[in-house]
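Figure 3 (text version): structure tokens given as input.
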């Protein structure tokens, strides 16, 4: 009998008082999460219980956001005005964001590409927008549950997860066959899997509410079945393999998803196989010896994509630590590495140099903060801690104060 089963058998009949005692006794046990820093979560929760006033503004803001999130959703993939080519509304369907009607043809087909310019008409299909709202909502609610122990948050997370993944009337089929279709070109493509990265928030949420009587063994088994099927689709379908072969940020986030879902399913061999390939397949290909990421710099939002891809690589490095795969210090003979990619971006993030590449929707120095804070922990011999101090201070109510360790 596993620990979760024992926990639920005790908590369900005893009620809220002993549930509170139980939560206090396991505070030192890190939650089973993959993208969040589990040790920091434990540390922050203990600090709050010890009366750390410095974290109270962040908790207060999280609770306010969680209160609002209780009325969000539930969201379902079946709630869209169009029907996928399969004829099944349980199939996820979205349109590529940077493709627009052709002004030179009467029917607007085939669509034309305008990189970085989001077509607002894509929102009408709803699936992508609802998936984003679902991911944001369950993250907020699950964190609120973890830090407060209030069961109403866990109950709402369960409803949202069951609606999207489990309930027969509303669940999504575990495939992405019709994601980011381009009208006049295709009905779905590998690039669409950049949207499925939002499913990783669901896996994180389950880890945060584990132990709640509202998340049952049956719920857990059903969600694992869904992710097992989806991971198999990612690995074996033509569309999934196309995304896995992508050389830019799409390939990075494909690897990150595969590793996270495999770890969630206790398939450490598959996760290790992916992580062991990241050095040669991603870092060596995506990063130049001087730290540039050419495939991201070619975009019209070069700063955002450089930050985003490097964030994915750093998350892969953090996962690698779990399995003894050191990507933090991976370096090719000519000097390509995560660290040199960070160093390339730092002068621009600190405002010491002007960004020389395209960034059509505004340049945000704030975007580099999470990377620098993580780098300061992973590379204590480097000047990243001092560089973090040069960035504009974040507000005391910012959620990052709960989630990100200070160097």
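Below: residues designed for each position.
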């Amino acid at each position: 009998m596993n620990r979760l089963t024992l926990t639920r058998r005790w908590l369900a009949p005893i009620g809220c008082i002993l549930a509170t005692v139980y939560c206090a006794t396991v505070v030192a046990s890190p939650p089973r999460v993959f993208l969040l820093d589990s040790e920091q979560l434990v540390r922050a929760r203990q600090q709050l219980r010890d009366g750390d006033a410095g974290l109270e503004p962040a908790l207060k803001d999280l609770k306010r956001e969680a209160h609002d999130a209780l009325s969000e959703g539930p969201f379902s993939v079946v709630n869209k005005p169009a029907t996928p080519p399969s004829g099944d509304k349980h199939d996820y369907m979205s349109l590529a964001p940077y493709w627009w009607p052709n002004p030179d043809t009467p029917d607007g087909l085939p669509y034309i590409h305008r990189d970085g310019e989001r077509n607002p008409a894509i929102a009408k299909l709803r699936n992508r927008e609802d998936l984003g709202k679902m991911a944001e909502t369950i993250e907020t609610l699950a964190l609120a549950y973890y830090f407060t122990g209030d069961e109403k948050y866990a109950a709402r997370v369960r409803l949202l997860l069951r609606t999207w993944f489990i309930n027969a009337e509303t669940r999504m089929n575990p495939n992405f066959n019709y994601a980011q279709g381009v009208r006049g070109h295709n009905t779905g493509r590998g690039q669409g899997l950049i949207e499925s990265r939002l499913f990783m928030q669901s896996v994180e949420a389950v880890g945060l509410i584990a132990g709640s009587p509202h998340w049952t063994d049956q719920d857990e088994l059903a969600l694992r079945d869904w992710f097992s099927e989806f991971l198999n689709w990612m690995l074996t379908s033509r569309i999934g393999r196309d995304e896995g072969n992508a050389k830019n940020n799409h390939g990075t986030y494909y690897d990150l998803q595969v590793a996270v879902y495999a770890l969630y399913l206790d398939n450490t061999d598959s996760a290790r196989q992916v992580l062991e390939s990241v050095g040669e397949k991603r870092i060596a290909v995506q990063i130049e010896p001087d730290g540039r990421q050419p495939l991201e710099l070619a975009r019209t939002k070069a700063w955002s994509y450089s930050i985003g891809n490097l964030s994915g690589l750093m998350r892969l490095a953090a996962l690698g630590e779990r399995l003894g795969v050191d990507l933090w210090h991976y370096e090719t003979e000519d000097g390509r590495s995560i660290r040199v990619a960070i160093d390339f971006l730092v002068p621009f993030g600190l405002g010491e140099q002007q960004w020389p590449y395209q960034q059509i929707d505004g340049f945000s120095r704030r975007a580099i903060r999470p990377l620098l804070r993580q780098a300061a922990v992973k590379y204590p011999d480097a000047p990243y801690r001092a560089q973090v101090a040069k960035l504009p201070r974040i507000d005391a109510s910012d959620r990052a104060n709960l989630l990100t360790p200070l160097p």
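Confidence is low (pLDDT under 50) at residues 1-27.
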